[in-house]
Amino acid sequence: QVQLVESGGGLVQAGGSLRLSCAASGLTFSTYAMGWFRQAPGKEREFVATINWNGGTTYYANSVKGRFTISRDNAKNTVYLQMNSLKPEDTAVYYCATAKNSYIRRPSDFGSWGQGTQVTVSS
């Protein structure tokens, strides 16, 4: 079965950086687009970024554009989210998910999900 395992979350001060990783198994990783979402307490799950199967196309939410970068290494079955210039409002649990393509945005359109990794940004 498909398994996605996120890592790299933690506590960081505002203005700092973190790199999240999502290791995938049980699927032909290079044939899937991948996405990152986040969910803050009391809020709905929010789209962050997507990347197509070969990394040639990426999309970002306006709230993270210019600060976050999604990338992937198909040889390692891993997708990354580099987060720079972090703000307290970026605090959330971050999830990776599989996708049929990089154009979709609704959580319900994504396939398998990881368990999430907590990111906390202090002011």
Gross geometry: globular
Proportion of helical residues: under 10%
Strand content: over 45%
- Strands, total number: 10
Termini Cα gap: 40 Å
* Rg, Cα atoms, Å: 13 Å
Structural class: mainly beta
Given the structure, what is the number of helices?
0
Strand order of the largest sheet: 2-10-9-4-5-6
Average predicted confidence as pLDDT:
96
Largest sheet: 6 strands, mixed
Low-pLDDT residue intervals, each spanning 5 or more residues: none
Brief rundown of the structure:
With 123 residues, the protein is mainly β. It has strands at residues 3-7, 10-13, 18-25, 33-39, 46-51, 58-60, 68-73, 78-83, 92-99, 117-122. The protein has no helices and ten strands.
Task: Write up what this structure looks like.
- The structure is a single chain.
- It is built from no helices and 10 strands.
- It has strands spanning about 5, 10-15, 20-25, 35-40, 45-50, 60, 70-75, 80-85, 90-100, 115-120.
- Strands 2-10-9-4-5-6 form a 6-stranded mixed β-sheet, with no helix packed on it. The chain has a 4-stranded antiparallel β-sheet with strand order 1-3-8-7, with no helix packed on it.
- A hairpin with a 6-residue loop joins β4 and β5.
- The chain is globular.
Q: What distinguishing features does this structure have?
A:
10 strands, 123 residues, six-stranded mixed β-sheet, 0% helix, four-stranded antiparallel β-sheet, 48% strand, single chain
Topology:
Blueprint: E1 3-7, E2 10-13, E3 18-25, E4 33-39, E5 46-51, E6 58-60, E7 68-73, E8 78-83, E9 92-99, E10 117-122
Parallel strand pairs: 2-10
Antiparallel strand pairs: 1-3, 3-8, 4-5, 4-9, 5-6, 7-8, 9-10
